[in-house]
Amino acid sequence: MELNIASVEIEPKRHTFGNVARRLGEDRPASRYEESMYDAQPTENFHYRPQWEPEFEIYDKNRTKIKMSDWYDLLDPRKFHYMTYVSARATQNAANLQSFDFVDKRSLVNFIKEEHLQKVYDFLTPLRHYEYGANMNNLAIVDRVYGTAMMSACLFHAEDRLGMAQHITKIVLLLGNNDVQKLDEGKEAWLNDPKWQGLRKAVENSMVVKDPIRLFVKQNVVFDSFVIPLMINDFSKEMANNDEMVLPMLTEFITSWYEETEKWLDSVIKVMANESEENKNLLTQWVQEDIEIIEKSMESLSSFSIHSNELILEVKTGLISRLNKCGLSL
Amino acid sequence: MSSSIALLCLQSTEDGRAIAEAIREDNEGVIITNKPAMIQIERAEKITVKASTVSDHLGRDWEPEELQLVLISLGGQIEETDDEFIVYWNN
């Protein structure tokens, strides 16, 4: 008997979804990012207007002053969809956990000078509330922005911010030997310590901004590029200059996460600014307004360093040159 | 004499598809065939996989050694550096 094993090649009728193929201009296997993101948001047949804002449809391009001919131009260069996002963060967290274990196992906290430890409590703990504010603001952007490209990326960013708040909590608990009172003191400082009130006011005022892109610029582009470089990066450097290497180890997660996030923010701003002269002027004007607010509120907070003014100036120049590279004229 | 064909067969995974797209961008005249669960990549003389292009397509840093994770088969000699993975025929 002769056994003949023949291979039959079955050509699939199509390689991706119709809506994705129309975007790509050809029927080829698309990436999971493209398939999960393109045109996932409904665009028509909205029967009822939302009760909370009846002047708009539930998904409405007019919620923001920024005009885009296609909101799906605002792609995420990190190509985050659920799987890539979760696995990227899991890998980063595993690496970060090693630093925590290292510090814990060798009881390195005991080597930190008391005065420096107090400084960490004073300048880092209240940031939990800033991060939580950023989480809420990003969820508000997700509520109102048009197109899944921005919606999904902002949702991941919102989750990141909740994660960063938790990360700061973990740092404080590790340093304070699980003393939750340190967290209560941080909240107390956020609510009542004069040096935090400027930032708190800026954050609380941002929570009523309804234009999603206005809020995106305020929170993610301007506020964060002052707060994170100053309060995390420069603060850690200041600690390192005083021979305290533990804190820089513990905050590295936030630093590297922010470097990655900047790529997404820059690309979104670049695409919006290149779309039209009106967009560019609007973005420039918004950024200028917000820089003025945040710059003032950071003055009392950068007092951890004797070069406080230089640090703020450096961060500001950094932001301006970054945004000018993206096409704004600041 | 006609030139030899350099060949790469990759698994059709998320990473494999991104690598194939990067190859399409960097190698003019490359023929990419989507087989069941496999991507067949053929080009006369030489196929260059550039790490920077693959990183752009994947949205994360990618190193040429990661190619091994999706590699089914290849035809040609190999030159691998930190920036590139090249399959070529030297005859």
Summarize model confidence as the mean pLDDT of chain A.
94
Number of DSSP-assigned strands of chain B: 7
Q: Which percent band covers the strand fraction of chain B?
A: 35-45%
Helix/strand/pairing category of chain A: mainly alpha
Secondary-structure-derived class of chain B:
alpha+beta
Largest sheet of chain B: 4 strands, antiparallel
Discrete helix count of chain B: 2
Question: How would you explain this protein's 3D organization?
Answer:
The complex is a heterodimer of chains A (330) and B (91). Chain A is an all-alpha fold. Chain A has twelve helices and no strands. Chain B is of the alpha+beta class. Chain B is built from two helices and seven strands, in the order βαβββαβββ. Chain B has a four-stranded antiparallel sheet with strand order 2-3-1-5, with helices on one face. In chain B, strands 4-7-6 form a three-stranded antiparallel sheet. In chain B, helix 1 (14-26) packs across helix 2. The radius of gyration of chain B is 12 Å and the shape is globular. Chain A binds chain B through residues 9-10, 15, 28-29, 31-33, 76-80, 83-84, 88, and chain B through 12, 14, 17-18, 21, 34-36, 56-60.
Observed structural traits:
heterodimer, A: mainly alpha, B: 91 residues, 3-stranded antiparallel beta sheet, 2 helices, 23% helix
